[in-house]
Design brief:
The protein has about 300 residues and is mostly beta strands. Helix content is about 0%, strand content about 45%.
Length: about 300
């Protein structure tokens, strides 16, 4: 596959960048008036292509980990590649390396992916991801359609990476506990434990080291169910808020020392394909011709 350089879109209020050849990814979102960078942007194409999942807002299908890459549904075995060798997992699914098509209108970007049935995922399906750019809000709308003749397992996520230098502070709406992800696979075992995420805002550079937590998406006392970031140098505060279709967060920050925070909305728990019978796992499937639509948005307050 020939790699192409990132492409850019400028609207009245925003500068955006995309790498459609990998992960259907919006790799830059800059608020023009304030200069606030809302997502983690790679310094160059070469750096991005080495690890596309830690930049911007890549689409994952299915997200996170599946032990041995295998599960069964409707009597059929699914066998995804084991690409996290040390833990014998499939990590981040089957579409990270597939090319998307991208087209722009004045205030909109549309990215589309068509997946043809192949041995590791025997379904035709399509994805359409729209970004609608308003004055202070950028809205994501992801539509996934099963174009095969059989029911298709469904589990999707965004691996949203937010820049967190030491002069920024982040607040995360969370319940105070998380779902345990014990070794060796780092998938749920049915137990919970206290979250290490602080209450209220905490500055970049003080985040828990090696954060790797799975939490339900719940509203705080004010009804907010997302992440907000204070940017004092730009006199702004911005929010990333998933729609109610999303059920869980995966929070990850590598070793906590790389100045970023991944707030990843997912439609189900990690490894939900092995928890199909549990009503709270978020496991879902699409009938032939059926679609699911999931939304999220970035919003910014200025002169904060």
């Amino acid at each position: 596959m020939k790699e192409t350089a990132g492409i850019s879109l400028e609207t009245a209020s925003w500068l955006a960048g995309f790498h459609p050849e990998r992960a259907g990814n919006m790799t830059r979102l800059c608020h023009k008036a304030s200069g606030t960078e809302l997502v983690r942007t790679p310094p160059d194409d070469e750096t991005y292509l080495k690890q596309p999942e830690i930049w911007g807002v890549p689409v994952l299908f299915p997200p996170n980990r599946t032990p041995y890459g295998k599960f069964r549904f409707r009597g059929r075995e699914y066998a995804m590649p084991v690409n996290e060798i040390a833990r014998s997992n499939n990590l981040h699914g089957i579409i990270m390396d597939l090319p998307w098509q991208c087209k722009f209108q004045t205030d909109q970007a549309e990215l589309t992916l068509r997946h043809a049935s192949r041995a590791l995922w025997q379904h035709d399906f399509s994805m359409k991801l729209n970004y609608d750019f308003g004055e202070s809000i950028v809205r994501q709308t992801l539509c996934v359609t099963n174009e095969s003749r059989d029911d298709m397992p469904f589990f999707v996520g965004f691996h949203t990476a937010l820049p967190m230098p030491p002069d920024r502070s982040l607040r995360f709406a969370h319940p105070g506990w998380c779902i345990s992800l014990p070794p060796p696979f780092l998938v749920p075992d049915g137990t919970t434990r206290p979250s290490t995420l602080p209450d209220g805002f905490f500055p970049g550079g003080t985040m828990p080291e090696k954060l790797n937590e799975l939490l339900p998406i719940v509203p705080d006392k004010n009804g907010f169910r997302g992440v907000e970031v204070d940017c004092p140098a730009q006199h702004t505060r911005y929010r990333y808020t998933p729609g109610k279709e999303w059920k869980y967060w995966m929070c990850w920050n590598a070793d906590g020392k790389k100045d970023f925070f991944c707030a990843e909305p997912m439609s189900g728990i990690v490894d939900c394909f092995h928890h199909q019978e549990k009503s709270d796992s978020g496991f879902d499937f699409l009938k032939p011709g059926e679609s699911r639509v999931l939304t999220a948005e970035f919003s910014i307050q200025t002169d904060f």
